[in-house]
Amino acid sequence: LEFMAFDTYTRTPKQSAMWCKATSSDNKQYLRKGYMGSLGTLLSMGEGSAIPQDGYVNGPEKTIYPAKWGLRVSVTDEAQQTDRPKIYKDIGKELGKAAAYTLELMNYDLLNSGFSSSVRTGADGKALFATDHPLYGVTGGTYSNLQTGALSKTTLQAAVNKFSKIVNERNVPIVMSAKTLEIPIELEWLAKELLLSPDDPTTANRSINSLARDGYNGGPLKYRVNRFLTSQTAWFLSCDKGEQD
């Protein structure tokens, strides 16, 4: 049963693995993460002058404690003896599916609860999606990773621009581009119109669809339908996992 459970778990596709990055720790009791302002730009030097000095700027920390999850199934002796359709012999496989399903729910909760500061917050004490994330290294500086408004050509263009202007803790631009539009099932048809139409779907003037033909970030923006998103209207932009560092 244990082999069947883990074999099914590893074989079950996990959609969140396409955008969600997993972190492991040698410490099994907790995981500590924190913000730190990195170095700024090089400074101009005069002849014979001392080399300018810079340093890291410490930000807040957050300690994460792993949760324990489990599930068990009880089978009566009568059910085991009369299991004609062989349902109970698949208990191991079903436990593996349940584990994979739970992992998806937990990962997508980062998106589903990311707008609430009372449910999901980062080390800075802000909701994961907020307009005023503080910069540690720039006094009073903040940045926004939240785009408001229903999905449309205008809001999507604004979100792509905002994504491309993300900065580090020293307010230095990060070379990172939006690659995928994460949407619930209800927005799939609108996403097709916005991203797959060769012409601008919002006008009759045969203008090109800049969202479909966008090439500055290495290719056109793609969309991905996520069945674990609870909101019918919320939408998200993600980059390749390799760019998240």
Task: Walk me through the topology.
Blueprint: H1 2-11, E1 31-37, E2 57-64, H2 77-81, H3 91-112, E3 133-134, E4 142-143, H4 153-164, E5 180-183, H5 188-196, E6 222-225, E7 236-238
Parallel strand pairs: 5-6
Antiparallel strand pairs: 1-2, 3-4, 5-7
Helix pairs in contact: 1-3
Characterization of this structure:
The strands form three sheets. Strands 6-5-7 form a three-stranded mixed β-sheet, covered by helices on one side. The model has no long low-confidence stretch (mean pLDDT 84). The chain is of the alpha+beta class. It contains five helices and seven strands.
Q: Work out the helicity level.
A: 10-25%
Approximately how much beta-strand content do the residues carry?
A: 5-15%
Q: Going across the major beta sheet, what is the strand order? A: 6-5-7
Number of helices: 5
Structural shape: flat
Mean pLDDT over the full residue set? 84
Looking at the chains present, what oligomeric state does this protein adopt?
Answer: single chain
Briefly say what this structure is.
By secondary structure, the chain is an alpha+beta fold. The protein contains five helices and seven strands. It has helices at 2-11, 77-81, 91-112, 153-164, 188-196, and strands at 31-37, 57-64, 133-134, 142-143, 180-183, 222-225, 236-238.
Question: What features would you highlight for this structure?
Answer:
alpha+beta; flat; two-stranded antiparallel sheet; 245 residues
